[in-house]
Design goal:
This protein has six helices and 13 strands. The protein has a single domain, classed as HUPs (Rossmann fold), CATH 3.40.50.620. Helices cover 29% and strands 26% of the residues. It has 269 residues and is an alpha/beta fold. Helix 2 runs antiparallel to helix 5 and helix 3 packs across helix 4. The protein starts with 5 loop residues before the first strand and ends with a helix. The protein has a nine-stranded mixed sheet with strand order 11-10-9-12-8-1-6-7-13, with helices on both faces. Strand 10 and strand 11 form a beta hairpin.
Length: 269
């Protein structure tokens, strides 16, 4: 396949996991307290898929990468200042909420519509990448629904490794139960690959790549299309953080069997 791949990566921003997140009920529904002020990072699973896409494109001359991202465009601009220095890509931004209170069906519809409009996208060379889940929208089904809307039937979930074979086919390792892998073979694109952690390190910053990316990222952000993804008719009675519960009792010389029985009894209560 000397013409390379057309790789579309679906990934957005999430609040930095080191921040304290406080859910609040606002006028437009639930959200996070001071959400626009929170530092943001590229969703970890989506980041892995982007780095894997860059590695694959490097091996296949003629390949191209698009990053389709749904989020507040002001926050996306801040995020791109760092992400743009790692991988060469063309940004396709959608201006909308990126919180955990959006509906996966609506998100998938918005992403699929944006991919449908990509100029010069060759569906016969398309590999749709993304995270197997999301740190904010952890439904685990969004990328599958995007693939279905685009008519892509070959879908691989929780992917950790992708290897190109000499005949142009793809060898894929998917996580399954018991710490094992399912080995799959795909004749080639189009295909959907929802990535887990992969096995590649984070690429180093390259200011030259960053400058090249930002020349097209800034105009793209200015033209970002609104993407309302709130589910009509869905309401939230309340939003709270999970309650922490800790009950400690210090004892001595108690047999292990008795301790196990107490733990089982406590769980049953």
């Amino acid at each position: 396949m000397s013409t390379g791949f057309h790789i579309v990566v679906c990934g957005s921003l999430v609040p930095d996991p080191l921040q304290t997140l406080n859910p609040v009920q606002g006028a437009n529904g639930p959200g996070l307290k001071n959400e626009l002020m929170l530092p943001a990072v590229l969703d970890p699973f989506a980041a892995h898929s982007l780095y894997e896409a860059a590695n694959l494109a490097k091996k296949m001359p003629g390949s191209k990468i698009w990053l389709v991202s749904l989020g507040n465009k002001a926050k996306l601009q801040q995020l791109m200042m760092t992400i743009a220095q790692k991988v060469a890509f063309e940004l396709v931004p959608l201006d909308g909420p990126a919180s955990g209170f959006t509906d996966s069906f609506e998100v998938a519809a918005a992403l699929a519509a944006a991919i449908d409009k990509l100029a010069n996208l060759d569906r016969s060379r398309l590999l749709l990448f993304g995270g197997c889940a999301s740190a904010s929208r952890d439904a685990g089904v969004t990328l599958q629904m995007v693939g279905e809307r685009l008519g892509i039937l070959d879908q691989f979930l929780a992917v950790d490794e992708l290897k190109l074979q000499e005949d142009g086919s793809l060898r894929i390792l998917e996580r399954i139960e018991g710490g094992q892998y399912q080995v799959s073979a795909c004749a080639g694109p189009p295909a959907v690959l929802a990535w887990a952690t992969g096995n590649l390190p984070e690429p180093p910053n390259n200011p030259q790549i960053g400058m090249q990316n930002m020349r097209v990222i800034m105009p793209a952000l200015q033209k970002a299309q609104p993407a309302p993804v709130a589910a009509p008719g869905v309401t939230f009675a309340s939003v709270t953080l999970p309650a922490q519960q800790r009950q400690t009792r210090v004892v001595k010389d108690v047999p292990v069997e008795e301790i196990a029985k107490e733990i089982v009894a406590w769980i049953k209560e």
